[in-house]
Each structure stands twice: as C-alpha cells, then as structure tokens.
Fold this protein.
Amino acid sequence: MEGREFARTDPFIMLADDRIDLPPGTRAGGPHPHAGFEIVTFAVEGEARDRDEGLLRAGDVLWMTAGSGVVHNEDVEPRGKLRILQLWATLPSGSRWAPPRFAHMPLEKVPVRREPGIEARVYSGKSGAVDAPSHTYLPLTLVDVRLGPDALFEQELPSSYNGFLYPIDGEIVVDGTRPQRLATGQIGWLEFGGPSTTIRLTARTNGSRVMLYAGARQNVPIITHGPFVGETHADLVRVSRAYAEGRMPRVSELGR
C-alpha cells in the first residue's frame, strides 16, 4: 500500500490470512529478507514447526521487527491444518532502521480480560483493566475477543490511532455513527474522534470471535518493494544491496 491507500490504512500495510493444509512431513516456505517494518504473526488454529521460530501453537504470537534488515527462514512444517494471520505494520520513522529483533509470546503467557460473556486475550496494549507488555516500536493494541451470545464488548482507544476488526468466527455488530454488521472474513475499519474513542461490539445469537488491531498513525508516507519498506527509493536500494551482499543477520542469530 502506498500513497493515498496507505494514508487510509496507516500504520497498517497488509494483513494476510494464510491457511495451509499439506500432507504429513511436507515443508513450505524458505529464506527471505525483510526490512523497514514490523511483522505480527498470530496462530488462529493448528500448529507448526519453523526452522527459525520453533514450535508455533494456536493462540501464540510472533513479534518481529525487521528494522535495518533480517533474513527469515520461514521453512514451516505444519502439523495438520494451520491458519495464521500475518500483519505488516510500519515503523515509526525514528526507529525504521533499528536493529532487528524477535520475540515469541506463547498462549499461556497472554493476559486475559474476563467479564460476563467476554474472554479477551490481550496481546499488546490495554483492554479494560488488563495491560500487556509491548514488543513493538509502534504503539499497538492487539486483542483476540471471544463473545458469548448477545454479549457487549467495549474497548477504549486513543483518537490518534487507526484500527480495524476482523471476525474469524460468527458475526458482530459495531456501534457508531453508522453501525455496521460484520460477518466472518470481513474487515471493518473503526471510526475515531475526540480525545479517545470507545468501540462497542455486540455478538449475534451464536456468539463470535473477532480480532481487534489498532495502532498509532505515523503520518509518514512509505514506499514498498516486495519485502522492503522505506521512505525513499534510496532506502529501498540500500536495503536491497545489503541483502544481496549478505549483510543481513538471520532470525536464528537474534537474541531471544
């Protein structure tokens, strides 16, 4: 996303919903570079072993700051059906070329907000009275919200944020000046205004599960070329040359 399109989605560049179903023992992927942005990988279901990242199970999140550049050997061996959501988000301009880093957040370490009809796993940011540690340079809120039938969930966010909802099971109604109904697989962009914004979600009669992604707008235009993000064409030339000359570390070499 560049120009006017990224101006609308800032700070988010891409969300991929990948579903992998391979015969036992089959591997997918291989080594490839990234630079200039951050990647958040969420396992929706299944599990897989990755040469760089180890064992990834449903509910785990992987955080990777590509920064100045890193080579990721995404050689994945799924164990049955695997579904992952991979988010690409821009870095703040002052941190765009920070040293790369990586972190694995297993499900059992994720703080949980529990209220009647609500179970919300808070991976980053704050939801209600629950705070999660930050693993990104970008101020980011990531919540996996599970709602019982007709349950109401409220989430407060700063007005400087942009964000969206992605239902992965069931249907929700999003309150606002123009209430919208979202079904599984649809994306709904949030409305922001005032010093803070309260998002209200209501589940339908069968309950629902929805991912909430929100982050601070950076208001800095970007350009992209494949796995590289920069602010100028010179940025892209520089990181492409660093990769070609073998000057990017591998994820397996980063401190955990």
Summary: The mean pLDDT is 90.
